[in-house]
TrEMBL record:
Residues 50-117 form the POTRA domain. Gene3D superfamilies: membrane protein fhac (3.10.20.310). This is Cell division protein FtsQ. It is found in: Membrane.
Amino acid sequence: MALTTDEGARAPEAAPEPVEREKRSRRSLWLSLLTLVLLVGLGVGAWYAFPVRSVRVTGNHFLSAGRVAALAGVSKTFGWLYYGAWRARALEEHPWVLRANIRKVWPGTVQVSVTERTPGATIQHDGRSVVVDLDGTELPGAKPVAPFVRGWGPDRSREAIDAARLLGRFDVRSVIYTPSGFTVETSRGTLWSGSLLSLQKYGSGVTMYAGKRVSIYPWGVSVGE
């Protein structure tokens, strides 16, 4: 039998030679390395070409400008293009900082604006004084301020601070807590109440009986000298 061939069929292409494949692989590797070197060079160049030229701090009173800048992680050795709020985590977590806002201003300025907490009360316990704001956050290094909170029994200092806040317009000087209630001394008189709710509802009695001791009970109000 005679063999016949299909002239329209193509012979399969020969696979690339091993040497050719190796050359292509090397070219691809060198191209990747060159691209990486160029990117690193551009990044380093941008770091030094656009440094932080100035740092402006506003809103600080207790913390120094230098301390705020350090907590924000910004200095003139840092690249301006690469600086971001992610560097300021320590500033946002500092007990004295209520809020912080950071802006980058072209070319090379970083503005750091802070709102600091305000000392609101001094808690006295076991011979130790701790200054807090009216939310109860401890403020290290703050000078003692009125009202002075102290007491005995289970710790009710958080409630005592709330009591001081409720009567803040009456210039509260001290709050003493006990298991049975709170004694609030103001510039206009003294109040005792067994609960914050009663204090909130009838606390204005201190203005009606200036210089007196007002005791607030669930069933009424007692006024004494």
